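Question (not urgent): is this output format expected?
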Amino acid sequence: MQFLWAFIIGGILCAIGQVLIDYTKLTPARILVSYVVAGVVLGGIGWYERLIDLAGAGASVPLTGFGYLLSKGVREAIDEKGFLGIFTGGLSSCAAGITAAMVFALLMAVLFKPKSKSL
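Got this back:
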């Protein structure tokens, strides 16, 4: 049942993004940023954790999950370090994901030659 919920919730998040791309004048970058901000806000008020409990990877893998991870890291760091946790919590909680993205991007840039799009 968890696979079904992951598919449904992840699919809904992706479908919302596709609708925003197709029917609004928002750029993909703004949509991505708004997904991260939505994850931070929903994580900050405690709603996103319930969604992750229900959908697992369907909610934690999309960009909203990254935003949730940032807010969770900040909350935990504030509990441990106080005010300084505001500045360190987000990066320390998602450092592995950021590092993996950078390493794989570098690897792809080295292995493949980029080509310009021809319209």
